[in-house]
Each structure stands twice: as C-alpha cells, then as structure tokens.
Amino acid sequence: MDRAPHPRPIRLRRRFARLTSAFATIALGATGLVALGGTAEGAAANLAQNPGFESGLSGWTCSAGSGTTVASPVHSGSAALKATPAGSDNARCAQTVAVKPNSSYTLSAWVQGSYVYLGASGTGTTDVSTWTPSATGWQQLSTSFSTGASTTSVTVYTHGWYGQPAYHADDISLTGPGGDPGDPVPGAPGGLKAGAVTSSSVDLSWSPVTGATGYNVYRDGSKVQSVGGTSATVTGLAPSTSYQFQVTATNAAGESPRSAAVTGTTSAGGGGGGGTVPKHAVTGYWQNFNNGAAVQKLRDVQDQYDIIAVAFADATGTPGAVDFTLDPAVGYGSEQQFKDDIKAKQAAGKSVVISIGGQNGTVSINDSASANNFANSVYALMREYGFDGVDIDLENGLNATYMTQALRSLSAKAGSGLVITMAPQTIDMQSTSNAYFQTALNIKDILTVVNMQYYNSGSMLGCDGKVYSQGSVDFLTALACIQLEGGLSPSQVGLGLPASTRGAGSGYVSPTVVNNALDCLARGTNCGSFKPSRTYPGLRGAMTWSTNWDATAGNAWSNAVGPKVHGLP
Question: Is 485 a catalytic residue?
Fold first, then answer.
C-alpha cells in the first residue's frame, strides 16, 4: 500500500475542485440553466467541512476535549488532527454533513496510529465503519454507504480505542450528492461566566451566538445539559468542589467548538446524595456472620468509620426483593438491641446502610417488576431497622437500566437523606460503557460514593492506557483516575481495600500504601510512577472489608487510614 504523503497533488486538486465549482456556479447563474443531474465534478466534490483541519477543529466536535490540531505529522497541507483516547473515552471526532436521500456516498480518510476507526452514522440504511489495527505511516481508510428515503444528514467520524496512544487523521473526504446545508455551524460562545453558587449548584451565563438555536453545557469535559437560552444552572454537584465548565452553540448544521473554560466552586455543606455523610469518609463492612474474623456488635465498630455497611441482605422468593435476618452468631439477644445500636451510631454522626449482594449474592433486578420489588423491600428494611440507605455490592453483574430505576424509586420514597454506596469490582469500572459505571453515572445526583474493590483483581488498565497490577500505589491511583475523569465527582470516589491479608484472597496493601494513594490523588504527593494530571481534593475517602478483619488485626487499618482520610483537604 502506498503510504507516501503526496502533499502537492492533493492541494492542487482541492484548489481545482473549488475553481471548477465556482466556474460552474457562474455559468449556471448567467444562463439561467437548471442542473438536473450531478456532473462528474459535482459528484467528486468533498462535502466535509474543514477536511484537512487547516482551520483548527472548526466544524468538528471531539469527545471529552480529546482532539487538537498539529503541524506534524500531516498528510497534506499545514495541519492534521491529533486525538488522544483515555481509559474511558475513545477520542471520537465527528461532523454532521448535509446529504440527499436515496443517494450513494464514499467516505475516506488518511490515518496514522493503532486501532483507528472511520465511519458514518445516521445514514438511514446501514451505518458503516472501517478500521486499521496499526498504521505506522499514513494509511487510507475508505468505506461507502447509501442514504435512506428521508435522510438529509449523516455524521462522519473518526475515533481511536480506549487506553491506546493518540492517533492522527487528515484529508477526510465524503463524496456524493450534496444536500442543503442550511445555516452554517455557529461559532463558539464567548463571555462565559460563573455566577451564584450553592453547595450543589453553579449558575452560568454567556453571550448569545448568531445563528444558534441552543447550547450545550460541559462540566469537566462531559456534556451535562442542553438549554435554549444563554444561561444554565448546573446541579448535582458536591460541596466545596471546583469544576471546569465550557459551553457550545448548536443549530441544525451542527455544534460549535467549545468556549474558553471557566471554573466554578460550590459552597460548603449539603448537596447531592449522601445525607449527613462527612466530606471525607471511611466506609467499613460489618459482617452479619462469623467466618473466623472477630465477632462484633455494631457498637464495637471502631469510631473512625463514618459509613457502616451491614453485610448482607438476603434474596427472597420474589424477584428483586430482599430481606434481612440477624445472625445469632453475632451475639445479639434481640433485634431491638441491634436497632438500638444503629440509632446510637447515627447519634454519633455515622450512617448505617444495608448491603445487597456480596460474593454469593443472588439478587437480580432485570425488569420493571423486580426493580419495584427491590425499591419497596429495601425501603421497608430502612423503616424497620432505621438504615440510612443501601449499598450495591452485586458481584455477579447488574442491569443498568433497571438498577437505575430501582434506586431512583427508592430515592423517591426515602428522600434527600438517602445514602447510596456501591462496591464494584475493578473490571466493572474500566469503561463508562460497563453496566456498573453506567448505573453510577445515571444516579449521579443521588449517589454518595463508589468504593471500588482494588483487590481480588487481575491486572487492569489505568486512565493513561498502561497496564497496572494490584498491590501498588499506581494500581490505586491510575484506576481511580478512570472514575474521576469518567464523570464521577471526586466526592463520589473512594478506595476499597482489605483490612488485613486475611480479608481477601489477594490485593492487600499496607495502610501506608493506601495513604500514599490518597495523598497522590488529593494533593499530588507520594505518587508512584503514575501521577494524575490534576488533583482531586474533594476525594471522598476509603473503604475496607471488613470492620471485623480490622478488629482482628487490632484496628491497624482504621487507626492509620481513618486519620488520613479525615485530614484530607
């Protein structure tokens, strides 16, 4: 395959095509002729705007701010696209193009890099894509498609692959009959300002853009809202946390480049899900069974724990429904004593939640009926025992659609004080497309914290695309970065580790390693080889399995990690 750049002929062809089109327009206008069919020149015209990225990213929108233009390498001209995937983003750069119904089109692009894709969606027939696993030099990708009977626009795109290095693209071409482009894509908004704030919201305003029919609002690189006017209130934020905001202008022709960014910082106190959970919190699982760890009553749980997850609720014969039975092995003389201990912990400022699942959990929520059963039964347990909320620890998978429905239904019943925690495995949070991650993002406005289990795990990708093995600071920080950059607020991210070597099959690290990871993420200090691009002082904290194994080891874990968490900025 010929991978030579050939810059001069392509530039000449571009200029010749523009001149030919201009002369044809003048000739038709002067003679009053009407073009009844596409000419050879018209069919070869490139419908893509800014196909060689000579005008920066004008006309293109890249996911999560992943795209930029570079002067080298280029296939022709003076610029090319460089887009960099992340652990939870494939660096998709797209453009919407006007086309005609029932017509044939050819799409091509020159690319460099690993796992580079080119495709078209919204065709009205069969959407298409093609890719290369590795292009060390410029390689042309090409595909073709036909439009449906009512299709007037398609989206053409390139993207890389999650965690892979940056890719390059240039000279993107879409040929075929051109449609009515309508209004041009609007320009980027100016004058973006952050206004009034609360503990959970930030007001934004900006200047109007000519030709815009709406605006999209981005928070920390992710689109969170679409509005018709020149102001918006972004809600569901964490207290005392700084966020970066940008806006774009939209119309039928597409979306503008993003505006310059502004920073807004929420005020202290309240906001979001989480009831009275402190800004920085330690979560511990309390075992409602005896497996050789120290047997505890709730009153015995170390004071460093802010959230105590009672493990576990039991599945019932009704799909989605759960119940709870106090195990006689933990030593309570009555259920009332257990309930009194819950009240005492709450009086001391702690939250006590009921955990659903565990390694052997069999609860399944996979339709609306089971989602309703789940919400009703958990709420019944909250009312009976006084639990503050629920922990989702389903290690055999979940359905994002119906778990979201279940938790929103529970929230509607329990109110704003509901505490929702989650404890997914590492594989569940590698990508925003995973069901656990989707669920967390779906309920972000009512979610308290995700304490991923950084143990009993194989090697995993970090947000920099590198592979890390459990047992190190880098494993904790590089994987946490995926959640922090993938849409969760820092206040919704915690580090879950075993309290002792007996608390898990593998993955135990000393409290010093946990504390170094907390410092790295919150302060940018004590990092390993991986150092995040920014700090997350609002990081919620840490979790351990379990308070019982912690007690067995003399509370060494909570005595070391607790003060570190509570001393975070």
Answer: no
